[in-house]
Amino acid sequence: MQNKITTPAQRRQALKDRLIDLAGAMIDAHGIEGLRARELAKSANCALGAIYNVVADLDALILEVNWRTLASFEEYLVDANIGREPRDATEELAHIALLYLEFAARNPHRWRALFEHRMANGTGRPDWYIAAQSHLFAHLEPPLRSLRPGLRMESYVVLARSVFSAIHGMVALGLDEKFILMPLPLLREQIRVVTLAMAQGLDARMTSHVK
Amino acid sequence: MQNKITTPAQRRQALKDRLIDLAGAMIDAHGIEGLRARELAKSANCALGAIYNVVADLDALILEVNWRTLASFEEYLVDANIGREPRDATEELAHIALLYLEFAARNPHRWRALFEHRMANGTGRPDWYIAAQSHLFAHLEPPLRSLRPGLRMESYVVLARSVFSAIHGMVALGLDEKFILMPLPLLREQIRVVTLAMAQGLDARMTSHVK
């Protein structure tokens, strides 16, 4: 054991990491509702008060879990592109949409936590979290630039969010047994059809009245 | 008072209607989380047990409120079309999308309750509720029929749900201060641009590779 933990700061960080791991596992198993401080302390084998020694509250812990979820989706996107032939922008948008669906379908609770979590104390999300979200939307910007060249930079940022939101809606309602449940193969086909249509309609070479 | 309530069945119905009204008002004020049986009984000036005499549980009451929300959105859609010139299918889709945004923006809690409510006891939603949802999606079918004629009937049902989901995603995330908050005029513009693009891309006259 060469890297034996020694300083109090290192011990705090180690506990924090362990708590994020365990909170992530609890969310994976039962969703955000399943996260309870008492059970968490028990799993981490620490006192209840020790949790609040390393994170401000459960909200802060959920944000850390969500940050990791965003990071693992990023990784998933990047891995899926390694060694791939470049696609045209229309296909690229559909490809990202389908990767988003797969990620959500494989990690349903973790993924829902990104959207269901509301800060209980009314504070906003920290900048590092907002930056991670923005980074995610940015993956949609290159294909949008190809489809609609010549817009101002901010327009791509906004359009990427809108296109992401539309894809998210199809994924969220399509996977929701309460609202519009579609079998996964049908949902894949629908997301592909609608995302391709969206991309084609945005294509400046094909359209006139979309400004 | 010619319609004086006399029979026990009428009294039960009157209490049920009053509870649905009050539950709706509580949801309007504080969202689904704000609905509490004890407060409801107090507002309705009835015993706590009397609630469970007319509805199975709070879930059943929320479903009734949600059913009314679906019905009032239907009414809103129909009213907005009275005396209007017929639009082409592309404009019609964008028009419905923008009405959906306005309705959600004006009734934020009531509208969120449609999506946030999960049956606590694991039972499914009753048929009458599912029918009301389906009726709503059906408004998207006529423009989709014009855009892509010749599909099988079920295909329009599925496509209407997918297009609705995409529009819903833009509305839900665009109005969500936690995720992607857009000022309402920008959100309107984005929903119009993306919905028109989606419609144009679906237009069989314009596209080839979308099957």
Explain how this protein is built.
- 2 copies of one chain form a homodimer.
- Chain A has 211 residues and is mostly helical.
- Chain A has helices spanning 8-30, 37-44, 48-54, 58-81, 89-106, 108-116, 127-137, 141-147, 153-174, 184-202.
- Helix content of chain A is 70%, strand content 0%.
- The longest helix of chain A is centred in the first third of the chain and has 24 residues, at 58-81.
- The radius of gyration of chain A is 20 Å and the shape is elongated.
- The interface between A and B is large, with 42 and 42 residues.
Task: Please provide a brief summary of the model.
The structure is a homodimer of 211-residue chains. Chain A has 211 residues and is an all-alpha fold.
